[in-house]
Amino acid sequence: MAPTFELDPAITPALREGVLALWADVSNAGGSVGFVPPVTADDIRPELVKHFVALAEGRTRLLVGRDDEGAVAATAFLTYNTHRLMSHWVWLYTVMVHPRHQGKGYGRDLLAAAEDAAAGLDGIQAIRLTCRGGEGLEDFYASCGYKEVGRVPGAIRVAPGDERDDITMLLPLARTGD
User: What is the pLDDT of residue 125?
Assistant: First the structure.
């Protein structure tokens, strides 16, 4: 069954713990979401707090996907670009699908929901994201309509001697009536 998505859900203790558990599970499964395994929820909590502060300040929007049991199964954070000359696009951060749901189309569903959410934001014409090279992520994003627009070789140090490219991807949003 496809996940159900909600933009800007109420931030409840259950949601916070669900996102935290998702982030830890994705990280420990080798997901490229800012940490390398092994990590605990306590390792991730400070970063999640930063995301929630940005939500409270209106700089970021949270998209949550829930599985058929209502558990947090996927997330993405849409963050406004605050530079006055670049306010027509948003960043997509911390794009995650729980490992138990990978291979079921949840990633494509999440990106489609993020595209719909961004298209509904006033003045937003594109989504940018970055991904870690060496994982095939750029191929997945390309298959969802994103185009590679930049690459910095070796910019991400996963471990000493294990540097990965930092890849920037862009998805222009379809505009009607422009």
Answer: 98
